[in-house]
Amino acid sequence: MSGDSVKNKYTVLLPTYNEKENLPIIVYLITKYMDEGNYPYEIIVIDDGSPDGTLDAAKQLQSIYGSEKIVLKPRKKKLGLGTAYMHGLKYATGNFIIIMDADLSHHPKFIPEMIKLQQQENLDVVTGTRYVGTGGVYGWDFKRKLVSRGANYLTQLLLRPGVSDLTGSFRLYKKQVLENLVSSCVSKGYVFQMEMVIRARQYNYTIGEVPISFVDRVYGESKLGGTEIFQFAKALLYLFATT
Ligand SMILES: Nc1nc2c(ncn2[C@@H]2O[C@H](COP(=O)(O)OP(=O)(O)O)[C@@H](O)[C@H]2O)c(=O)[nH]1
Ligand SMILES: [Mg+2]
Fold this sequence. Notes:
By secondary structure, the protein is an alpha/beta fold. It has one domain (10-241): Alpha-Beta Complex (Spore Coat Polysaccharide Biosynthesis Protein SpsA, Chain A). Helix content is 42%, strand content 17%. The strands form 2 sheets. The chain has a 7-stranded mixed beta sheet with strand order 3-2-1-4-7-5-8. Helix 5 runs parallel beside helix 8. The longest helix is centred in the middle third of the chain and has 18 residues, at 142-159. It is globular and about 50 Å long. The chain binds guanosine-5'-diphosphate and magnesium ion (MG). The site of guanosine-5'-diphosphate has 20 residues, from strand 1, strand 2 and helix 3.
């Protein structure tokens, strides 16, 4: 942190829906890498009434790691990822926010790299990218790869954001920046991630990229479906027309 008078704190927002098996591992790995790097942090788990008992697992983790480190902000029912971030953000005490999936697709070992890049260049946003350098995707079938690549390609073509991975959801934000972005984004669901980057560009925020390897979930199910793809196309056209 080279002489900063304020010590940075990182809030990790972990939205969960049926992640009972994954949560203990992801929490362990986050604590490992944050402790190793000596970064002050908290993890906010936003569980949306998972029927598999994810919240009970989260409570156990809280009793192990302490309520300073693990903060629980559950909601009664499944209300979607976008609003889960907004909900968690309200309780964040860090000046930096990390958002990531809880299904082990995003490895916490990349967090220190994101933090270092942010510090070097005082960036507003650092995003993990699967589509540059050593980044990559593992375990997806052809259809899923095509959808992700296609979404990125179309968006690059129409909106020219200058960021290689638009639909990824492994990112580090300055808290104020995330608050501004969240309140100006109109879309819900997967497309939310793309809109965040487009808006960030619109507001001239600085964005850096860290190559990440994305590994498909082993436990549980993805929530990507036909409606999400349709939503994406709709939002892309909306952004094309309005930004
Ligand atoms: N709180 C909350 N979390 C969700 C919801 N939908 C998905 N998640 C979580 O968001 C992350 C990404 O979801 P996932 O289904 O893995 O998306 P995919 O990897 O793009 O297929 C995971 O940690 C999920 O548990 C939701 O409605 N509410
Ligand atoms: Mg996933």
